[in-house]
Amino acid sequence: MRRPKVVSVVTLVLVILTVFSGCKKKDICDPIDTSLNMEVLAPARTSLEVDVFIDATPSMQGFVVPGPSTVFGQTLTLLESATISGTASSKINFFKFGSTITPLPNRQHLEALKPRFYGGSSGTKTLIEKVIAEADPEHLTLIVTDLFQDNADVNQLSEKIKAKFITNNLAIGFLGLKSQFDGTIYDVGPANLTIKYTNRSETETYRPFYIVAFGPHADISAYFESLDKAGFAGFPERNTLIMSKHIVQRTADLSQSKVIAANGLSEVTGVIVKSGRIGSRFKEFKVKNSQSADLTTQIPISRTPYSLEYSEEFDVQHSMQECSKTSDGTKSSFQPLSTSGLLTKALVRSMADGELKVSLTLNPRSIKKDTTTCMRVILKPSKFVLPKWVNAWNMTANEVPGSSDQGEIDGSKTYNLGLFLSTLWSATNEVHQPKIADLQFYFRK
């Protein structure tokens, strides 16, 4: 009486084995490792050597004629104290330059508080390119100058800065100050005019000068903060800008993101890809059998100090990869797909709280059933904006009278400042193409 029961059990086992043998085993892949593509701002060095080059051409003399207590005079004395207080171990070296470069040992840099320091053996030309050639990339290089340049100077100097610093992942910092001035400004505009200028009592009429810094972004930022603590924060006209590939302190991923809407999708964790190697830098979703799907996530962004502002428009680049067996059939890994029809629309907005709101519209039909698809989305600002103070302090060629004109020149502005800074940023953007986010989404239907 028991024999039919045994047959039934055997039959059931055979049916189960048949069903499972007919099922397709799902390929499970490790998530794609993009860590090498993530830019992270390194901390400032605690041991630092600083080289300060002081422009000693005659155009700078007017900054010290009113006396040593001017903003310019205070700057010269604070440069050293900021270096000492800003790092645990530091050394500072001073030089004067014009047509030539001369070391200033034994605190000779304090001679720059006196009018006789300017001109003489230094010559009349501000050859910043010679400083660039002499600069040690391992040091923090500072140039104290009025930055008066013609168009040829801008192009030539920008190319040298690009080759020496930008292509070697070093930053360019600008700390713009205005100081009392009573003197002569040489080689102004295309006609190389010579003008006399004396500021009025209003601080906006003070003459600009700049501390131009070259080195790692974090070192420049830390040094500028040390200058603030040393006394710069109390100066009436002070503006700061740093150009580098680091527009954010860390390229954003999805580790701190929050999904605020998902239609046609269900978020899962550790189901679609192996999550042990990279952790939570990505998001996983099961795709419902629908004609369309959309996803909205908020991503925190940490801007770097003193970096350029960017517009609300973003360049969205995306690519797709599919989890499949390798050619020898022993391992599953993600392989690039020639088509990327999953993402049909992307909307990126900057939020007031420093977050990005990323909304994606997807085409689920582009995902194969029982196959894991990775969509990688890279966000880059499409337009950067120089700070408003650059335009306010900028003097264009149209504001400079011809050689036969008798019009006045506004000595509270810097000739070609806007052109110089925009040229440097164009070079930085061309070399680094800075991004703010590199996002990975994994989908399985």
Q: Roughly how many Å is the radius of gyration?
A: 30 Å
How many DSSP-defined strands?
23
Low-confidence stretches: 12-24
- Characterize the overall form: elongated
Order of helices and strands: HEHEEHEHEEEEHEEEEEEEEEEEEHEEHE
Question: Could you report the average pLDDT, rounded to the nearest whole number?
Answer: 86
* N- to C-terminal distance: 48 Å
Helix-residue proportion = 10-25%
The major beta sheet can be summarized as: 7 strands, mixed
Structural class: alpha+beta
State the helix count: 7
Sheet with most strands: strand arrangement: 3-2-1-4-8-5-9
- Percent strand equals 25-35%
In words, what does this structure look like?
The strands form six sheets. The chain has a seven-stranded mixed β-sheet with strand order 3-2-1-4-8-5-9, sandwiched between helices. Strands 11-12-23-19-15-16 form a six-stranded mixed β-sheet, with no helix packed on it. Strands 10-13-18-17 form a four-stranded antiparallel β-sheet, with no helix packed on it. The longest helix is centred in the first third of the chain and has 20 residues, at about 5-20. The two termini are about 50 Å apart. The protein is of the alpha+beta class. It has seven helices and 23 strands. Helices cover about 20% and strands about 35% of the residues. The model is unreliable at about 10-25 (pLDDT under 50).
